[in-house]
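HUMAN: Mind making up another protein with tokenized structure?

ASSISTANT:
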Amino acid sequence: MEKFEVNILGCGSALPTTRHFSSSQVVNIREKLFMIDCGEGAQLQLRRSKLKFTRLNHIFISHLHGDHCFGLMGLISTFGLLGRTATLHIYAHEELERLLQPQLEFFCKGMTYEVKFHHIDPTKAEMIYEDRSVSVTTIPLRHRIPSCGFLFQEKKTPNHIIRDMIDFYQIPVFELNRIKNGADYVCPDGTIVPNGRLTTPSASPRSYAYCSDTVYQRNILSQIKGVDLLFHEATFMHEDAARAKETFHTTTLQAAEIARDAEVKQLVIGHFSARYENEALLLEETQSLFPNTLLAKENLRITL
């Protein structure tokens, strides 16, 4: 099975602590790296996670609060120092380009590569990236400023050839791609060999949904239904639900309810408030409603 991993670089919220870095993740799909948010220290965490800078070409920014994007300038500058030549694509609200462009012009003169901004509308669910392996779609969220999550959906790979059957029917090489993609084979005498006799099904496509930062809202359920892994912020314990609502964040039990009702396979919670020194309590509370929950931590690697 091809690689599909989620790497947690930082899982803290806005107030810095010695326990956590600010929000940032890297999704590794078939050795292509996609960064989600880029808080302070993200490039240091890339090193610690042993992720290759050269394979990171796409960065998705959920919203323009500092704990989700203050690491961008440092990362962009470091790429320049490393002699990068490949274009870096940044997907974010249009305001980010306006804010970063003067800094790029001042700090990154003579840069050896291009930074290309792709404007996204956080209020709409729309595909913003696609290649042969994966598509990325925005998930509209509700926060104090425009905010969205991201849904990564792997594309189905071709069926697996049964080599003995190919040899038995003496099927020419030029027919193999058609057969991998589901076609039957017609023998020279007109006999039809069903595809199911020539191939075995490939693994089911996997999916990952990232939802941070947002107030509790159920209208995302249909979009994230049945995903293999859901990251959902759980900034507060449920006893602090009033504070969560005031700051447009989510509690542990609310995140668990979203995971349960969306019938996701696994939940990972993060974006922890600095007020909690023992985050095992947040995990315990979430697991009381949705048992298959992980606690995010720096340099955690989750394989789908």
